Write the structure tokens for this entry.
Amino acid sequence: MKKLDPILKNSFTKKVLRATGLRKPFAEQVKTDHYRMPILEENGGFLALNKYDGPDIPAKEWEDLEYITYPTDPNTFFAPLASATGEIKMEGFWEVGKTDKDGIWTENAKKAPHLKKWVESLGVNFGRVQLLRMEPNSLREARWGLHLDDNNRLNPEKTGWVVRIWLELTDDPNSYMVLRKNDLNRTEEVRLPLPKFTQMVVDSEYLFHGVHHGGKKTRYGLIVSGESSPALEKWIKARLPKEPQIRPKWLDN
């Protein structure tokens, strides 16, 4: 399929391409016998947590890293802190016969001790750990790019389902995470704001997601693949805000 003109990347075109099979989701929503955290499922697959309140993290820990990108997506850059082999390389864990667990620290991790400590504080088996570097985009672009992650390929059933844990590093109050159970249904869309040190957990192989970065500067965030477990659920409960979570419409369907 030829590369689309940016103006054609809209909700209508996306529906047509989905219906014709020309634009399929990267992964599929499936129900398996993996352990899933009740606290996350009860809220529809996501939880917004209290902000990180630990020691300040210097900007050099995300600005001075080695960033790379996928050949198919030259506009999004990542700095791996942990990868399948310990190399600074963008590849699926399945490409070396692993599930997205048992990540190995890369050379980048030596430059980011506070971020490394935050990941270790989760107390869970983690896989890929990477910094995201993102330039401003439009809401239309964010909606076009809504996707499911491929976190659980080769993951044995009866073990923990891999989810994603986010830590926002820059102050982007005009930016937000966009979540949908059905990526073509705008009426059920949930938006989670992204001010500095926002923490959240998302079942990103269940919920279509993407970020609208409405700021003027480069946005940075840390993304961790973590195994669902009672230990991670305990970490989440210790950081739940007092105010109620957004209730997604898909829970009522």
Helices lie at 11-19, 38-41, 60-63, 113-121, 139-144, 230-237. The chain is about 15% helix and 25% strand. The chain has a mean pLDDT of 92. Residues 40-241 form a domain with the Jelly Rolls fold (CATH 2.60.120.330).
